[in-house]
Amino acid sequence: MKLLILLLVLGLRRLDVAWPEWSRAPVRFARLMVPLGDLAGALRLSGAPRWLVMVVLPVVVIGGLIAWLHCVLAGVLGWIAGGALLLWLLGPDSENRRVDDLLVRGRMQDGAGVADAATDFGVSGEPGDAGFFNGLYSRILSREAENLFAITFWLIALGYWAALLYTLNYFLMRVEDEDEALANTARTVHVALFWLPGRLLLGCMALAGDWRRVSETLSGRVWTLEDDERLLDDAMNAAVGAEDDTEPQTMDKAMDRLESRQGLLLRCLAIWLLLAALWVLIS
């Protein structure tokens, strides 16, 4: 049933719906995490104990609630709650729709529109700036890998509680906080949680792209704990057959590269969902 709920949520995210702003922005996590942070502060907790209050506590409560709801009315309430939770974790806006918007603006030679759309991925500047498009490619890949692919992996592998644990920890890692010990704990947990789905995504890129080039590029690097973003970028360039990572000189060339990379990610998503279906069948 988790797979059907996942497909339904992915379909909802593709709809052109005017979702409320509080559901789209990262503030949807802050509404939960800020009170928990205040509670941890009142208890004078820091580091790992504070992480337990801000991440593990809501996972236990929400995960337990969904498990209980699955025991009521033949599980219908649990399915509804699980779908709502997954939509909350992924966010209502599809990354693919945002990239489609970028492609449309780029094909129309709308530099200002491309710059505006790029801010959705945390990229500032203007087309023509050094490193603008390569930075955009990297952020799109990182966003989809760490959001859509990783959350889907933990949902199918272990359930809603694992997807919630991953997402809350990821949010906590990206929020600036004076508690350095807390930040270090969140970063360590993220490395551990993202390693497996990240490596599986590398394999999907090889299957969906150029297996030989990806294998040669990643030789001796897959099992290390090196920077995941650089590893994913190198795998992407190899999978689409990019000869180099020099900045494209024209808007059309930049959009061609973006289109090829997004096409690869869509093929990876298809493989991802196929693997999810196989896992559900054998588990």
What does this structure look like?
The structure is a single chain. With 283 residues, the chain is mostly helical. The chain is built from 13 helices and no strands. Helix 3 crosses helix 4, helix 6 (95-107) runs antiparallel to helix 13 and helix 9 packs across helix 10 (180-208). The protein is globular. The mean pLDDT is 88.
Keywords:
283 residues; mainly alpha; 13 helices; globular
Strand content: under 5%
Detail the poorly predicted runs: none
**Oligomer state of the chains in this structure:** single chain
Alpha carbon gap, first and last residue: 12 Å
Order of helices and strands: HHHHHHHHHHHHH
Q: Bin the helical content.
A: over 70%
Number of extended strands: 0
Alpha plus pi helix count: 13
* Backbone structural class: mainly alpha
The rounded Rg comes to 20 Å
Mean pLDDT: 88
Query: Which of globular, elongated, flat, extended, rod-shaped describes the shape?
Result: globular
Main sheet, how many strands, which sense, barrel? none
Short structural summary:
The protein is an all-alpha fold and 283 residues long. It has helices spanning 2-14, 21-24, 27-42, 47-69, 76-90, 95-107, 111-118, 132-157, 160-174, 180-208, 211-218, 228-239, 251-282.
Break the fold down into its secondary structure elements and pairings.
Blueprint: H1 2-14, H2 21-24, H3 27-42, H4 47-69, H5 76-90, H6 95-107, H7 111-118, H8 132-157, H9 160-174, H10 180-208, H11 211-218, H12 228-239, H13 251-282
